[in-house]
Design brief:
It is built from five helices and seven strands, in the order H-E-E-H-E-E-H-E-H-E-E-H. By secondary structure, it is α+β, with helices and mostly antiparallel strands. The strands form two sheets. The chain has a four-stranded antiparallel β-sheet with strand order 1-5-7-6, with helices on one face. The radius of gyration is 16 Å and the shape is globular. The two termini are 28 Å apart.
């Protein structure tokens, strides 16, 4: 089943959902890669410099992993296509207008926005404005 590509439909139909918990971005050393099944990260990305994981703040603290910021995750609950054009830009622009940084991860079914924990409610309100205003960016 492929997702929606029409930006207007995506923005009008998305329901931003604040996930439970606090998340952090951290990295693993090469010799720790075998720990991934045990850690069960929310997301993984292999960069040239190392592997980035998105995990719960609680787990990072238990394992002594370094992180610099604490985030909340907002899932855009509309089935967006990976071929859709403009969703990331619209969401990032909306949040930037409220002085909120957006760390976006696109997955198969949904886009996920990580915002600083202190800004989570403001970010959620800002994203809900799309529904109130139609698709105006």
């Amino acid at each position: 089943m492929s997702g929606i590509t029409d930006l207007d439909i995506l923005l009008k139909n998305m329901e931003p959902n604040l996930r439970e918990g606090d998340y952090v971005f951290c990295t693993l050393n090469t010799h720790e890669y075998d720990l991934i099944p045990e850690i069960k990260p929310l997301a993984i990305f292999l960069e040239d410099e190392g592997m980035t994981l998105v995990i719960s703040k609680e787990l990072a603290e238990q394992r002594g992993y370094d992180y610099s910021s604490v985030f909340k995750a907002i899932t855009l609950t509309v089935h967006s296509s990976l071929d859709a054009v403009g969703l990331t830009a619209a969401v990032s622009t909306k949040l930037a207008s409220k002085n909120i940084s957006a760390n976006v991860i696109a997955a198969y079914y949904h886009d996920h926005i990580f915002v600083q924990s202190a800004n989570a409610e403001s970010a959620l309100s800002a994203l809900k404005e799309f529904k109130l205003m139609g698709s105006e960016i």
